[in-house]
């Protein structure tokens, strides 16, 4: 595997494993096969209702805890400072871990307007030793500028929606300018957008003799973006790691960039300025 280096000096593997809808005993088996296949970054959240399962998999695998990175995320109900600190502690009890490697504010919820307070809680939770690297998710340039201006602390990561139909290049640029690593969520458009069936992606898969999924992963890696890919099946997990033996030509990256549909390309209901979740 190759690595990304965060602005706090920490090192991340090139691909993270998403865990939406991976739960319970079958979920645990999925995480174990992923760890066995070589994944070292597991992306969970209080809102995914699977932090306990992720913690159980980490206790069960023979791989050392120190070789595995776990991300979790602060839900909307806990943006208020004291609630955020307690929720992070509760999430740690639930996982059975002593610390999170990465912890993100899940959504900015600008209508609620508590994200600066939530960010201060993450800054302090890092000082208390509960978290190694702190970041945000679904933050626009405006949200990023505000938390940096009001706290003086720049996030290490901004995890955002990004796939060929919504490449989110404006936020990727903002992240790059601020020295923040972009993580791409729903890199395949989940099971909603049929990104992997797109004729351009399929044509490139034929050209490079790879799978459509591998083309989309390379498109991210070659633009300095870390894809967080959900794959429950062992077959998909292995395929998504097999991406280091080829490079997309610049013209082909541009071809994929040209698939962008702007705001219309987003997964429905995921605009960070509008999105609300208070549970
Ligand atoms: N921060 C946020 O607000 C936010 C929002 C959404 C998601 N996320 C994170 O990002 C992760 C990924 O996003 P996502 O779960 O929405 O969707 P995704 O990764 O875009 O797509 C997952 C789907 O792709 C399939 N797949 C995986 N590898 C494949 C391959 N090689 N060939 C064909 N199909 C393949 C999976 O099938 P199988 O599972 O059957 O293998 C699953 O149906 C999430 O799990 C979560 O951790 C974060």
UniProtKB/TrEMBL annotation:
Keywords: NADP, Oxidoreductase. Residues 15-260 form the NADP-dependent oxidoreductase domain. The record marks 73 as: Lowers pKa of active site Tyr. The active site is at 48 (proton donor). InterPro entries: AKR (IPR020471), Aldo/ket_reductase_CS (IPR018170), NAD(P)_OxRdtase_dom_sf (IPR036812), NADP_OxRdtase_dom (IPR023210). The keyword Cytoplasm does not apply. GO terms for molecular function: oxidoreductase activity, acting on the CH-OH group of donors, NAD or NADP as acceptor. Signal peptide: none annotated. Substrate binds at residue 106. It comes from the Bacteria. Belongs to the aldo/keto reductase family. This is Aldo/keto reductase. It comes from Fundicoccus ignavus. The lineage of its organism: Bacteria, Bacillati, Bacillota, Bacilli, Lactobacillales.
């Amino acid at each position: 595997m190759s690595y990304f280096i965060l602005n706090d000096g920490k090192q991340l593997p090139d691909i993270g494993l998403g865990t939406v809808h991976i739960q319970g005993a079958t979920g645990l088996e999925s995480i174990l096969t992923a760890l066995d296949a070589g994944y070292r970054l597991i992306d969970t959240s209080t809102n995914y209702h699977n932090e306990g399962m992720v913690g159980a998999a980490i206790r069960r695998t023979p791989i050392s805890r120190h070789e595995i990175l776990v991300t979790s995320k602060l839900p909307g109900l806990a943006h208020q400072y004291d609630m955020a600190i307690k929720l992070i502690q509760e999430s740690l009890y639930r996982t059975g871990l002593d610390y999170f490697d990465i912890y993100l504010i899940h959504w900015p919820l600008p209508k609620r307007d508590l994200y600066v307070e939530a960010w201060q809680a993450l800054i302090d939770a890092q000082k208390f030793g509960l978290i190694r690297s702190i970041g945000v998710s679904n933050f626009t340039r405006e949200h990023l500028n505000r938390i940096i201006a009001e706290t003086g602390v720049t996030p290490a990561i901004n995890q955002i929606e990004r796939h060929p139909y919504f490449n989110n290049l404006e936020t990727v640029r903002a992240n790059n300018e601020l020295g923040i690593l972009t993580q791409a969520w729903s890199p395949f458009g989940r099971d909603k957008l049929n990104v992997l069936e797109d004729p351009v992606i399929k044509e490139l898969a034929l050209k490079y003799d790879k799978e459509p999924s591998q083309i989309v992963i390379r498109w991210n890696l070659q633009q300095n973006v870390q894809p967080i890919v959900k794959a429950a099946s062992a077959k998909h997990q292995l395929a998504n790691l097999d991406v280091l033996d080829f490079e997309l030509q610049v013209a082909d990256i541009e071809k994929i960039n040209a698939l962008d549909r702007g705001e219309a390309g987003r997964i429905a209901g995921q605009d960070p300025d509008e999105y609300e979740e208070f549970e």
